[in-house]
Design brief:
Radius of gyration: 22 Å
Number of domains: 2
Shape: globular
Structural class: mainly beta
Helix content: under 10%
């Protein structure tokens, strides 16, 4: 999804190194299932990129020619095992993905002052990565009007951040379009919702320009902002 970060869960737009999928199509429905893998080949926390394994599923249903309904789901885990990292740029570990205790690798003496595992140099150890679960429902009418709602949850205890969003838009191919987005992030007692309205100008040859106004709420703070998005297809 090219606009996953704008119109869907952030995890839907993450890139992966490798993927394998299966799709089954009927007269008016399509069922798809895919497994995606990303391996950075870096140690825990290097470059700020986590290894991840993602399972994605989608069901699409077309009750009429100009009506499309879809339900998408995603489950993602981010293993932090050193044996996963040390296998190379792309690797799929065999066996359990649960963390295991082991002897840390030895570090040559010349590198000791620059050791990455030195708490004094890098602060406290990062908290273990939590699994991510996301779901999205979408309805498209006449290839222009679209309604969408999604939610993304981190972890199973309910203490992690929960992100949500919904969008209603009408963007015809050769006419002026419009749209409204709502969303937010909730974590503990903190909730940061935002509201956005935008116009959509079709520039031809796959180009779109979308100026909009965003209103962000965080506690007692209220922040308006102007935003300009553009989409191009080569």
């Amino acid at each position: 999804r090219g606009q996953g970060s704008l119109d869907g869960p952030p995890s839907f737009s993450e890139q992966h190194n490798c993927a394998a999928g299966l799709s089954m199509k009927g007269s008016n429905f399509t069922v798809s299932l895919a497994e995606l893998v990303f391996g950075s080949g870096a140690q825990d926390g290097d470059h700020g990129v986590d290894n991840r394994m993602t399972t994605f599923g989608q069901v699409r249903y077309e009750p009429a020619q100009d009506v499309k309904l879809s339900l998408s789901g995603l489950w993602q885990i981010r293993p932090l095992l050193s044996r996963f990292n040390n296998l190379g740029t792309l690797a799929i570990p065999f066996g359990s993905l649960k963390p295991q205790r082991g002897t840390p690798p030895e570090i040559p003496a010349p590198m000791a002052p620059m050791a990455r595992n030195d708490p004094a140099a890098h602060g406290p150890h990062p908290r273990p990565a939590q699994p991510i679960t996301a779901a999205m429902v979408e309805c498209e009418l006449f290839e222009a009007m679209r309604a969408q709602g999604w939610v993304e949850m981190e972890g199973w205890s309910g203490r992690g951040p929960v992100r949500w969003g919904c969008c209603l838009s009408d963007t015809p191919e050769h006419e002026l379009g419009w749209g409204v987005r709502m969303g937010g992030t909730a974590e503990g007692d903190t909730h940061r919702p935002h509201l956005e309205g935008f116009l959509s100008f079709n520039l031809g040859r796959g180009g779109k320009l979308q100026p909009g106004l965003v209103y962000v709420m965080e506690g007692e703070k209220r922040t308006p902002a102007l935003v300009l998005r553009s989409t191009w297809f080569m």
